Task: structure prediction
Amino acid sequence: MSASDTMKSMGLTSPGAEREKLNKLLKIFDDKGINLEDSKPPRDLNYRRVRFNGPSADGDGDPKLTQRVKTFYVESWPELRLNKDGTVMRPRSGRNLGGTPITENTATLVREIVHGSTVHSFCREWRKSSFIFQDSTSPYPWGLQTQRCGSRGLILAVQAFVIKQLIFDREYVSNILAQNALKPTEFERKRALISAVCEILWKAGDGKRCCVCLLQDKRSYPQDHRLRDDDVTEFVVLFEFKKFTDLTTFMRRNIEEFTSDKSPGCILFLYSLVLSASVFKLKEEMLITNETTYKLLSDREECNQALYSLIITGHACHYMHNGNLVYSSNGNLLATPLKGIQERSQIGFLYWDKGENDDSRTEVGSMLKTPKKPIWLTLINNQPGLFFSTNIDLVSDWRVETRFILNYYTGLPGMPACPLHIETRFGRNALGRTKLHRRQQEENIPQLERCIMTKWYGAAVDWPDILPFY
Result:
C-alpha cells in the first residue's frame, strides 16, 4: 500500500492538497484585498443619534442632528508609560478608546453658546484651570484650588457638590461624622470629586443621558477660518452615556483628565455640561432668539447666572425667583414669562450687589435661599464664594437657626479659616436715632454680613479671632 493510500485510510489529506488550498486563499486576498479601516460597523448597533440641536427647519418635529456619536465600548486599555520623574504618562483618549471626534458643526454651536462667537477663545488662565485639591496639610484639605480668573466661579460650584458628597451623602450621617468628614483622605476626596462631577452632568441631562468630553492627539475636524482654533476645541472627543453606572465607571478611569495641572479640566467640564444639557435645551431656557444673544460666559469670561443655575439646578435660568413671572413690577402682562427656579435645589444661592438700589434689588427666591442641604454658593459684588454648615438641621428646623456657625470659603491661597458665629434670636444692636447716624452704621456693615442678612434678616455676625476682611 502506498503512502497516499495510507493517509486516505486514516482520514488525512496530502501536504500538496493543503498547500494548494492555502495558495487559493492567498490569491483571493491579493485580488480583492481587505481594508479594515474602511469597514463600517452595523449602523443600528454601533451608532447612536444624539440631540445636540433643535428641531429641523421643515417642522416635522425630528431633531436636527449635528453628528452621530459612536457607542462607547472599552475592550482594552493602552499600556501606561512613565515620565522621567517616575509619574505615569497617560495618553490622550482618542479613537482607539471608542470616542467620537467632535464635528465642526457641534464645535460651532458649543462656542456660540459659551462665548457668543466662534472667533473668541479662552484666555491662558482658563486653559490652565483644572480641579486640583489643596495640600492635605492645609487648613482646607477638602478644598479645590482657585485662581483669580473666570474659572473660579465654576470651580466653587463644583466645590459645593464635593462638600455635599463628603458631609451629607454618606452611609451614616451625624454631626460627629460631619466634623471628621472635613479631614478626608486622598481616596475620599477623589471619590467625592468623581461623584460630584457625575451628579452635575447627569442632572444637566435630565437624568437620562450625558456626554463627557476628553482630548485626543489628532485634530477632530479640518482647520477653518470661520472657527478659530483655541488648542482645545479642535481636539475634543465625545463619549455618550445612557446609564449612570457606566458614567461613574468611566469617570473613575479618566478623572485625571480633569485634575491634571497640564490639562484644561475646567474647559472640558464646561463643554461636557453644555453637551449633556444639549444646545437646543439651553437656547430654549436662556430665551435665545435671533434678536437676543445670551451666553454662559460674560465678556470678562466670568460665569453668568445661567451657568450657575445650570450647575446647581440642571436648568439654565437667568432669573432666581420662584416659578414663572407673568406680570411686571407695574402690573402689566409680560409677552414672554420670565422662567425662574421651579423646585427646591440641593445647593442654595445667595446674592448681594452694593451697586443696586434698595427698591430694585435682584430677587432670590426661597427655592435657592432654603436648599435641601445647608450649602450656599454666593456672589457678592461679582466675587464668588461658598457658605456651608455641617448641621443638616439648619435647613429643616427653625430652632437651629437661632444660633449656628457658617463656614466661608473662596479657594484663594492664603485665606484663613473663617467660621462665622451667627445669632438671629436677639439680632443686631439698635441703630442710631438719626437718619444720618443709621446710614453711617449701615455703610460700616461688611459686605459678607449683608449677604448673610438677605437670608437671615437682622442677623448678628461674630468674626472670632479674625478681622472682617470682606
Observations:
- Confidence is low (pLDDT under 50) at residues 32-65, 73-77.
